Amino acid sequence: MSDTQHESVRLAPDPASGLTKVGGDTPVVSPPAPRRRRKGIGWPARLEIALMTGPTLIVFLSFVILPVVMAAYYGFFSWQGYGPAENFVGFRNYLLIFEDSTFLAALRHNATIVVLSLLLQGPAAVLLALLLNRQIRGQTVIRVLIFVPYVISEVVVGTGWSLMLHGDGVVNAVLGKIGLGSLQSEWLSDPKIAIWTLMGILTWKYIGFAVILFLAGLQGIPEELTEAAAIDGASYWQIQRRITLPLLGPTIRIWAFLSMIGALQLFDLVYIIWGQYIADTAGTSTMATYMVANGRTAGEYGFGNAVAVVLFFISLVAALFYQRFILRRDTEGAITGGRR
Amino acid sequence: MAATAVFGRRARRPRQRMAWGSPSVYFVALLLIATMLAPVIYIILGGFRTNAQITTDPAGLPNPWQVENYLDVLTGGTFWRQVLNSTIVALFTTAGVVTLGLMTSFIIARYNFWGRGAMYSLFAAGLMFPLTVAITPLYILVKNLGLMNTLPGVILPQIGFGIPMTIIILVPFVRAIPDEIQEAASIDGCGRLGFFWRMVLPLAMPGVITVGILTFIQSWNGYLLPLFILNREETFTLPLGVQAFASQYSVDTAKVLAFTSLSMIPALVFFSLFQRRIVGGLTGAVKG
User: Fold this and answer.
1) CATH number, domain at B92?
2) Closest CB to A67 among B103, B138, B283
3) What domain count does chain A have?
4) Do the chains contact at B59 and A170, CB–CB below 8 Å?
5) Residues of chain B found within 8 Å of residue A268, distances taken between Cβ atoms
6) Dihedral sign (CA B3, B6, B12, B14)
7) CATH number, domain with residue A261
8) How far does A95 lie from chain B, in Å, by closest CA?
9) How far apart are CA B140 and CA A301, in angstroms?
10) Does residue B191 form part of some domain?
11) What mean pLDDT comes out for the span A266-283?
12) pTM for the model
């Protein structure tokens, strides 16, 4: 093999410059990377690369990328999941999706859940993280305990909450006992309340994650800053507002991103608590439950795949939009491939 | 001072100036914990009651305490088979994700070759493909591979979907290993693979453990994929089992509560054993 190609396989000394040289085995342009030639570079190194990335690539491509490509393909067919897909219908599935008021309702619910998650969980989690960041006794125990709902599986959470919330469940019983009988309601089936019930359960389940994330972020803020501000006479709240919150910004923005994507793809809890049919009437159906109900359960796999593609593009647009306008300064290159 | 007494050891540190150990902070913390734990405690206690007790007074305490529900679940084979299935799936998924993820991260972080950046971008883009989107075709794919109703049918896709996050977390860990260490190792006659085994593996351990724990818990709690792939009861994992149990015994609330609370124990134990690592690892991940 030619000399250039030998040289192209070389140990990367500098992580930052490493990713800038995509494409082409011409020697690197970035100056800070000191070039070192090592013994045994060349075919052995190539073999190592192939052996150590090959299995990963195979698993990743076949179980992640291929299904997504397949979804795009089958979305153009009317197909019941048996034999080859032959009944090509073009964009009809997509037209059907966007004409279906059930889907549009699900989309609206998803949008509501995204907005409410950010508005309810964000501020609450920041306040709780600030509170728990103070040195109080039993801090560790508290941190573990608020993470408990996050660790419990969605199925357990869903089963437990639906038992507690149904008509003569414990929640209504407690309300009656403490003299708030007028607040008793059909938490799960009343369309006016159900989405708020869902938000309550989601907040309960996922706020621990936000708090832990924010606590981790808070610990990265140098104490000197707040100390200096305190010496200059700033009050506790002034310090939090002017120093802590801005510095916590990157963490908050990453959390919001994760929360948004998670809310767009919400499935488990809704499916378990409301089942596949009641979710529509209770006003809690999501795009994902719509996909499962009208795809797999109805046996219309082509249609289900089209819904998946729609769900994917909505998530992708939301993610790209968010990255472009909000995340850009924080994660320069985290997802875009390390451009700096 | 009361504050000094409360803060005990820590008060000795000169930086300590926490005079705000006000009761209100503890009050809010207690309230928070109560909210987070009340439903869990209700589920556990409910398992110790009879259905009659639950119907007459949904909000009461067990009186008298019944252990039959728990004993029934624990002595029946269903629960243990599902625990075994979940354990197998979670262990193999974790092992696969960690092994493949670390090897690939090592190559991406420390080898310089054509297509390296593209490979990293490809995996990073995988974060954009959530399981929810791919689930229908994935089901068809697994069916075509003849892996329906088998545990590998769940494990392999879970590994695939676990890889992007693993690589995103581990690449910085492997990169952070100073070049000097590699040079020293190579002077001592250690090849690149030797360097991987002897230096990278131990030095990246904190990241590996974090990734491993997160993967394990995620797999243990996974619902959507098993729901599509596993249709036969003997292959059910715990989440599927809980749901099947809940619909099968929908009138026997107490037994459902017992089954549910038993099924959350393993994840809770696992989490409390490793919680320090999770928080530590997340700190690293957030900082990038």
Assistant:
1) 1.10.3720.10
2) B138
3) 1
4) yes
5) 223-224
6) negative
7) 1.10.3720.10
8) 19
9) 9
10) yes
11) 77
12) 0.77
